[in-house]
Specification:
Blueprint: H1 5-11, H2 37-44, H3 59-72, E1 76-80, H4 83-94, E2 100-104, H5 109-118, E3 125-129, H6 134-139, E4 145-151, H7 163-173, E5 176-180, H8 185-188, E6 198-202, E7 216-220, H9 222-235, H10 241-251, H11 254-272, E8 278-282, H12 292-298, E9 305-310, H13 313-323, E10 328-329, E11 339-341, H14 353-358, E12 365-369, H15 375-386
Parallel strand pairs: 2-3, 2-4, 4-5, 5-6, 10-11
Antiparallel strand pairs: 1-7, 6-7, 8-9, 9-12, 11-12
The structure holds pyridoxal-5'-phosphate.
């Protein structure tokens, strides 16, 4: 009988040891032994599929990757120490000197640093286009455009990019489409169904969901993943077995957690929209969202994040954070605890006003990552902080 993918994910595990443990064991080992020199030779020659050394593979990482493949509908994957090492390894494996990367100006801050500061050192050029100007995406394609990289929803402005349209463009021009699916999670959006070749996650966020570990996953077509594996096997961004064990266990509760996160985010967004201190509020599944139709087409839910602009601008944003009594002031997102952040004075403070506006960050913008607390307690804290 065909099983639902959540059932398959929960039941998917590495082989039991002879102890018969119900929960997956943790393989805290750097290397693995062989019964004979012949077996060891065959393992190194890749004639048999077995673990050699935890920089290459480890049963705990394998379990996490297998479960993520079920969720994203991917052929294969590799788990890395952080979301950034997943992104960097993908860039380094699939592009070379002389290639061009097409992306959008609203991407995660560290990804932006890699694209603008480090890739050019290796002769890889880039162009940024505004997230929702689909004509600009097409106009920026060059004969050497090797990769299109995007996030949707974008961080922190929650703009939605049409995956179907960008994928058509990538296929027409023979570019690899890479989607950072961190914000939506595989339950909210499955980019491979829209043609993405590679999907990347920072497992640090919703996948762990409890703010405990860093982690990253690259998923996609086997031919790409095999080459990314070879790059990682030699360069060493492997995920630690302990973190893999934590993250894999977290996936068993991802669906129930996300249902509550999404419910809370949607409830708060509806209650706060139109508040006298708020100039605008964005949540992908509110009809007021500028790309509501696209969100409805490609997402199964609106996600656990929303953002709003305070009429009082930069100073308003800072004092809003100061007045919060329950919500956390921290840089993470996707935790059990609701988090408020003010990008203009923190993560994006180094940019000029104009650069910030280019990436969709207005002075009074607050981003909320909805946690699992009682929704009215979160709402009341935000309302009292609005004053
Ligand atoms: C956090 C984040 C990353 C980076 O992940 P780390 O695990 O912190 O390295 C990449 N993309 C997005 C959208 C993120 O939110």
């Amino acid at each position: 009988m065909e099983q639902h993918r959540i059932t398959r994910l929960i039941r998917k595990r590495i082989a039991q040891t002879e102890e018969g443990e119900h929960s997956s064991p943790l393989f805290l080992t750097s290397s693995f032994t062989f019964d004979s020199s012949e077996e060891m030779r065959a393992a190194f020659a890749e004639e048999i599929d077995t673990n050699i050394y935890s920089r290459f593979s480890n049963p705990n990482s394998r379990e996490l990757v297998d479960r993520m493949c079920i969720l994203e509908g991917a052929e294969d994957g590799f788990a890395t120490a952080s979301g950034m090492s997943a992104i960097f390894s993908t860039f380094m494996t699939l592009m070379k000197q002389g290639d061009h990367l097409l992306s959008c100006n609203a991407i995660f801050g560290s990804t932006h640093t890699v694209v603008t500061k480090f890739l050019p050192k290796f002769g890889i050029d880039y162009t940024y286009v505004p997230a929702n100007d689909l004509k600009a995406w097409e106009a920026a394609i060059r004969p050497n455009t090797k990769m299109i990289f995007l996030e949707t929803p974008t961080n922190p402005g929650l703009e939605i990019i049409d995956l179907e349209v960008v994928n058509r463009l990538a296929k027409k021009h023979g570019a690899i489409l890479v989607v950072d699916n961190c914000f939506a999670t595989p339950l909210g959006q499955r980019p491979i169904e829209f043609g993405a070749d590679i999907v990347i996650h920072s497992a640090t966020k919703w996948l762990d969901g409890q703010g405990r570990t860093l982690g990253g996953v690259v998923l996609g077509k086997s031919e790409f993943i095999y080459n990314i594996y070879l790059f990682c096997r030699s360069t060493g961004p492997a995920l630690s077995p302990f973190n893999a064990w934590i993250l894999s266990k977290s996936l068993e509760t991802l669906e129930v957690r996300m249902q509550r996160h999404v419910e809370n985010a949607f409830y708060l967004a509806q209650k706060l929209e139109g508040h006298e201190k708020i100039a605008w509020l964005k949540y992908p599944f509110l009809p007021s969202h500028p790309q509501y139709e696209i969100a409805k087409k490609q997402m199964k839910d609106g996600g656990g994040l929303f953002c709003f602009e305070l009429k009082e601008g930069l100073e308003g944003g800072r004092s809003f954070l100061d007045r919060l009594q329950i919500l956390s002031r921290t840089a993470n997102l996707g935790d059990t605890r609701t988090i408020a952040s003010h990008p203009a004075s923190t993560t994006h403070a180094k940019l000029s006003n104009e650069e910030r506006l280019n990436v969709g960050i207005t002075p009074g913008m607050i981003r909320i990552s909805a946690g699992l607390e009682n929704r009215d307690d979160i709402l009341n804290d935000i309302l009292q902080a609005l004053g």
